[in-house]
Design goal:
359 residues, alpha/beta, Glutathione S-transferase Yfyf (Class Pi), Chain A, domain 2, 2 domains, five-stranded parallel beta sheet, 46% helix
Length: 359
């Protein structure tokens, strides 16, 4: 699979531009602020129908304009596929594949797999558990439709249960039977999510450790641990045990929406005990493991986006990532950089066709 062409209209700071791509390596070079990352985000949008950097869809429309449109042409399994994503102010986002609109965007996720490596990934280490859950969900959802459906349903029921708890508090009432309806649904969906996350991590950790050893030169011992309240108790028991607490807090305090990943170096949190270089290496290994896992599960090589990677990694690490193209471990890559000479020096060593777009 590869993206052969993309056209953008009113997306972020881009008025109207079209790019035609090489099957292997494509680079966008230019000063900060010219829109290099925005092009990568548009490519991301075609795979997920949302931005990697700004979840508020309307804010991705260019200033003083009423709409944006992204159109991509892919070669997938020897046929041309056309994806169009558009949004007009005051209307719902539209996603089409070969001129046919999707009813549910979730049906599109995983059809054109993609992995992005970006400076924003540092949020996985420094931010709260929600960011790390989002990472797990994105990896599993790209190759497991049942998981994605359970996740969407679970989050909807959580919102409904929380609204009911607020209603109870505001009206000084309580209806155990009404609450039980939501609890039964949560147990059903939550147990599916937990089991799938647990099975995923069991396979994923070994891939992650292997990637980390290669990138770091086997210098550090790292680990990735799945943290869940469901390790010790069933979700049914947790909801019952925390009922009085939930009534006071007016929200659901236990469940898979509280799961987390522990990122460790040695046996300590990498957030506190890892240097900047160690944290960067950890994140790169995490993303390359994500790439490997999705590729294996879907039998499609995902597109890889490398945003501002040269400024965040030393040249040896970047050269290692680029060298993976030669082994056919990687497929199509998109890179942003501020220095065209530096980019070209590394790419010339790849022995692969590449294209540089100067913005």
């Amino acid at each position: 699979m590869y993206l052969q062409k993309i056209s953008l209209v009113n997306f972020k700071n881009i008025e109207a531009q079209t790019f035609e791509f090489e099957q292997k390596i494509n680079c966008f070079v230019g000063d900060n602020g010219v829109g290099k990352t925005n092009i990568l985000d548009a490519i991301y949008y075609l795979s997920f129908a949302k931005s990697y950097f700004n979840p508020i869809a309307g804010q991705n429309i260019r200033h003083h304009q009423d709409f944006f449109m992204i159109e991509g042409e892919y070669w997938l399994r020897d046929r041309l596929e056309k994806i169009v994503c558009s949004l007009k102010k005051g209307q719902k986002k539209v996603l089409k594949r070969n001129d046919k609109a999707y009813e549910k965007f979730s049906e599109h996720v995983g059809q054109f797999p993609l992995v992005i490596i970006s400076p924003a990934d540092r949020d996985l280490i420094v931010e709260g558990s929600e960011t790390r859950r989002k990472f797990i969900d994105e990896v599993i959802s790209q190759q497991d439709k049942k998981y994605l459906q359970a996740l969407i349903a679970y989050n909807k029921v959580i919102s409904q249960r929380n609204a009911l708890l607020k209603y109870f508090a505001a009206n000084r009432t309580f209806d155990a039977l009404n609450l039980k309806v939501y609890d039964e649904q949560l147990v059903n969906y939550g147990t599916v999510i937990y089991e799938k996350r647990k099975a995923f991590l069991e396979e994923f950790v070994s891939i992650f450790n292997e990637k980390h050893q290669i990138i770091s030169g086997d210098k550090e011992q790292v680990n990735l641990r799945y943290k869940s309240q469901l390790h010790e108790h069933s979700l049914e028991d947790l909801l019952q045990q925390n009922l009085e607490k939930d009534k006071i807090l007016q929200y659901t305090s236990a469940g898979v929406h509280k799961d987390d990943l522990n990122f460790e170096i040695g046996e300590h949190p990498i957030k506190k005990f890892g240097s900047q270089g160690q944290q960067k290496t950890y994140l790169i290994a995490l993303k390359l493991a994500q790439f490997e896992f999705i590729k294996k599960q879907l039998s499609i090589t995902p597109i890889l986006l490398l945003d501002d990677v040269f400024d965040k990694l030393d040249e040896n690490r970047v050269s290692h990532i680029i060298s993976l193209v030669n082994t056919n471990e990687l497929g199509q890559i998109f890179i942003t950089d501020t220095h065209s000479e530096r980019t070209e020096n590394v790419l010339q060593q790849s022995n692969q066709p590449y294209q540089i777009f100067k913005l």
